[in-house]
Amino acid sequence: MKFMTLMIITFVIVIMSSSILIKAEEAQSCVPTDLMPCLPAMTTGGQPAKDCCDKLIEQKSCLCGYIKNPLYSMFVSSPLARKVLEACNIPYPSC
C-alpha cells in the first residue's frame, strides 16, 4: 500500500512539474499530462477507462519517447502499464 501511494505521488509530481513536451516524429506534441486518465489503471492494475485508451491511441507515436525519457520510463515500462496497453489493444512498442 505504501509503495503504491509513493508511486502515485511520484507520478503526479513528475507529470505536474515537467514543463518539457516530448516531440514525436510526426511533429505531434506529446503531452504526458494528457495521460492522467490512465493513472488509476497504471497504478492499481484496474481496467482502463475509455478516456485512457483514447488518449493512449492519440499518443501511440509518443510511447517510445516516453520509454526513453527517464522521467516517464518507469510509468510506461511497468508491468501494470503494459497491461493497460494490452487492454486498450495497443502493442507495446519496440523502440
UniProtKB/TrEMBL annotation:
Bifunctional inhibitor/plant lipid transfer protein/seed storage helical domain: residues covered: 30-95
Domain of life: Eukaryota
Record bears the keyword Transport: yes
Molecular function terms from GO: lipid binding
GO biological process: lipid transport
SUPFAM superfamilies recorded: Bifunctional inhibitor/lipid-transfer protein/seed storage 2S albumin
Signal peptide extent: 1-19
Record has Nucleotide-binding as a keyword: no
UniProt keyword annotations, A-Z: Lipid-binding, Signal, Transport
Protein known as: Protease inhibitor/seed storage/lipid transfer protein family protein
